[in-house]
Design goal:
2 copies of one chain form a homodimer. By secondary structure, chain A is mainly alpha-helical. The first copy, chain A, is built from 6 helices and 2 strands. Chain A has a two-stranded antiparallel ribbon.
């Protein structure tokens, strides 16, 4: 099995702590210490998660500053979202079916109310 | 670590064979035999992948017919796409930056051409 980009991205996202780290980074850059704060986790454990995110290209770490803040890198997310988009018709279709069903129920109720 | 829905979905998508199976199912239901055909894989190996997809709720298998065709279930993909959408601004921003950069390059070229 080759370590293709999409698989690496999805594997990195398949963890609630890593998704929470990305959620935190939506509001701006943060150092490892700042990222570790809300989690009941050791710094090495957080660093390990950051390494997975960094290897997947989902975050980058500044080399200039001493605190080496992390920031989101969007390219892999864009690629993953593009992949997802091919399936959009399926969830839109299933909502259409749900709409039809609810419409059907309403009609039935009206018929019952008239009786 | 709890096996939350999103993590299960992303973990199931983190494999090229499983994504290829979903891609095949976009054009309609298919039996295990039909799904196995394009892959150089044993039936048990394909069945294992199907079980991962089924457990993640990404496919369902009909109980009526003897061939038990598989079909895509969109709900987990919808949930995952919704999660992705929160990051859309990041990749749109980075494309804005790329646009600005290309605009800058064009201007420079024009200036050089005039000299």
């Amino acid at each position: 099995m080759t370590a293709d980009h999409l698989s690496t991205t999805f594997a990195a996202l398949a963890d609630p702590t890593r998704r929470a780290i990305l959620a935190r980074l939506r509001s701006g850059e943060a150092s490892v210490l700042e990222l570790a704060e809300p989690f009941d986790m050791s710094l090495p454990a957080i660093s390990k998660h950051l390494k997975v995110l960094e290897r997947a290209g989902l975050i980058s770490r500044s080399r200039d500053a001493q605190r080496r803040p992390c920031r989101i890198e969007a390219a892999p997310l864009k690629e993953a979202a593009k992949w997802m988009d091919r399936y959009r018709q399926f969830w839109e279709e299933s909502f259409d079916r749900l709409d039809e069903y609810l419409e059907e129920l309403k009609k039935k109720e009206k018929r019952h109310a008239r009786k």
